[in-house]
Give the backbone structure.
Amino acid sequence: MFRKKRADMPEAESEEELVHVQEALRLLGVSRTTLHRWDKSGVLRAYRTAGGHRRYQKTDLLRLRNREQTSEQRGGHS
């Protein structure tokens, strides 16, 4: 079985910005299923460790959270 190629880990200087799945779930207030769906659909970019674990850039998570909050305040969905 072939797996969809994932983004490589970013350069060392930006690794400090990467967070684990649990932190991403806490920041966004969504389920693991939603987080993985957003990854697959391209809404959010997951980086993979050498062991295949997902990591997310904190700036991407905060940007998405702000976009979702703005959309909710306007009464719509993004």
Summary: DSSP finds three helices and three strands in the chain. The longest strand covers residues 54-57. The radius of gyration is 13 Å. Strands lie at 18-19, 46-48, 54-57.
